[in-house]
């Protein structure tokens, strides 16, 4: 897994590439999110358009990042879900938890 | 070569999650050989991955001396995959429901749920001689059989 960080307006976008699975350093997302929170960056958008595979550990990583950000008064949203990831989030009822977007501009504009 | 529809393939390896990608690739290859389409292949692979992760982490407690054994059984209408570990197993009542509002935001506990969601039949079995196994089956739909026939025809079979 590889993560690139960029900023649009006051939103930090993490472009995630590769697999989010056990053994692929899935804790990397959680660590990166924690670093952003410590730096006062509380509007975080995870761009998952280039994620090739997610297992239950990867789903757990997204949930863990979401709760960490929310508990600190921030917002974490998801961009560009693949069809398979959307299906996994749907059957686990997590689509009702996450704000998801297909368009980056709309996603950035949605942060209050 | 004998028909892939009547074959049994076994793998045995140590309790190391470093094997997961290899196991999934093998699962994909076998499912493809059995005539499953791309979507089924993906979900079978994920189910195998989750079952093996559980076997390594919860069954064998990541003890490198303990083994995980997988058996892929191909028959005319289904693939049956048995994932066996050397742990004590888990009762159904001990498996939390990840859709329960109390569990929805927990980071763990979705692996078995995925297996049950994507496979047609799933059973858990504590072996009297020791160890635990997950037995999961995926039936071949008529659509997949059609794809398989197409593939065979294109290969001149």
Work out the number of β strands of chain B: 5
- What is the residue-mean pLDDT of chain A, rounded to a whole number? 95
Summarize the main sheet of chain A.
Answer: 5 strands, mixed
- Give the largest chain-chain interface (CB within 8 Å): A-B, 20 and 21 residues
Query: Which residues of chain A form runs of ≥5 with pLDDT under 50?
Result: none
Structural class of chain A: alpha/beta
Give the ordered list of helices and strands of chain B: EHHEEHEEH
Measured by DSSP, the beta-strand proportion of chain A falls in 25-35%
Proportion of residues in helical segments of chain B: 25-40%
What does the largest sheet of chain B look like? 5 strands, antiparallel
What is the CA–CA distance across the termini of chain B?
Answer: 13 Å
Q: What kind of oligomer do you see? A: heterodimer
Mean pLDDT over the full residue set of chain B = 88
Rg over C-alpha atoms of chain B, rounded to the nearest angstrom: 16 Å
What general form of chain A does the structure show? globular
Number of continuous helical runs of chain B: 4
Spatial sequence of strands, sheet with the most strands of chain A: 1-2-3-4-5
In words, what does this structure look like?
The complex is a heterodimer of chains A (112) and B (157). Chain A is α/β, with parallel strands linked by helices and 112 residues long. Chain A is built from 4 helices and 5 strands; from the N terminus they run ββαβαβαβα. In chain A, strands 1-2-3-4-5 form a 5-stranded mixed sheet. In chain A, helix 3 links the parallel strand 4 (75-79) and strand 5. In chain A, helix 1 (27-38) runs parallel beside helix 2. Chain A starts with a strand and ends with a helix. Chain B is 36% helix and 24% strand. Chain B has helices at residues 20-33, 38-59, 111-118, 142-154, and strands spanning 7-14, 67-74, 78-85, 121-126, 132-139. In chain B, a hairpin with a 5-residue loop joins strand 4 and strand 5. Chain B starts with 6 loop residues before the first strand and ends with a helix. Chain B has a 5-stranded antiparallel sheet with strand order 1-2-3-5-4, with helices on one face. The longest helix of chain B has 22 residues, at 38-59. Residues 142-157 of chain B have low confidence and may be disordered. Chain B has 157 residues and is α+β, with helices and mostly antiparallel strands. Chain B is built from 4 helices and 5 strands. Classes of the chains: A alpha/beta (112), B alpha+beta (157). At the A-B interface, helix 2 and helix 3 of A face helix 2 and helix 3 of B.
């Amino acid at each position: 897994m590889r993560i690139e960080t960029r900023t649009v307006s006051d939103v930090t976008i993490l472009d995630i590439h590769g697999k989010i699975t056990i053994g692929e350093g899935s804790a990397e997302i959680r660590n990166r999110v924690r670093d952003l929170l410590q730096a006062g960056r509380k509007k975080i958008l995870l761009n998952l358009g280039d994620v090739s595979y997610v297992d239950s550990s990867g789903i757990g990583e997204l949930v863990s990042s979401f709760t960490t950000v929310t508990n600190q008064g921030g917002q974490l949203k998801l961009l560009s879900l693949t069809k398979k990831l959307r299906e996994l989030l749907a059957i686990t009822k997590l689509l009702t938890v996450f704000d998801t977007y297909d368009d980056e501009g709309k996603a950035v504009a949605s942060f209050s | 070569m004998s028909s892939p529809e009547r074959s049994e393939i076994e793998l045995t390896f140590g309790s190391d999650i470093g094997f997961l990608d290899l196991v999934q690739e093998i699962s994909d290859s076998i499912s493809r050989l059995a005539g499953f389409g791309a979507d089924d292949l993906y979900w079978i692979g994920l189910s195998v991955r989750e079952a093996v992760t559980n076997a390594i982490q919860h069954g064998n407690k990541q003890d490198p001396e303990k083994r995980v054994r997988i058996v892929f059984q191909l028959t005319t209408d289904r693939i049956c995959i048995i994932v066996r570990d050397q742990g004590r197993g888990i009762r159904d009542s001990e498996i939390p429901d990840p859709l329960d509002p109390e569990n929805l935001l927990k980071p763990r506990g979705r692996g078995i749920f995925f297996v049950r969601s994507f496979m047609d039949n799933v059973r858990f079995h504590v072996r009297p001689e020791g160890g635990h196994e997950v037995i999961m089956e995926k039936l071949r739909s008529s659509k997949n059989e059609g794809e398989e026939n197409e593939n065979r025809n294109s290969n001149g079979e």
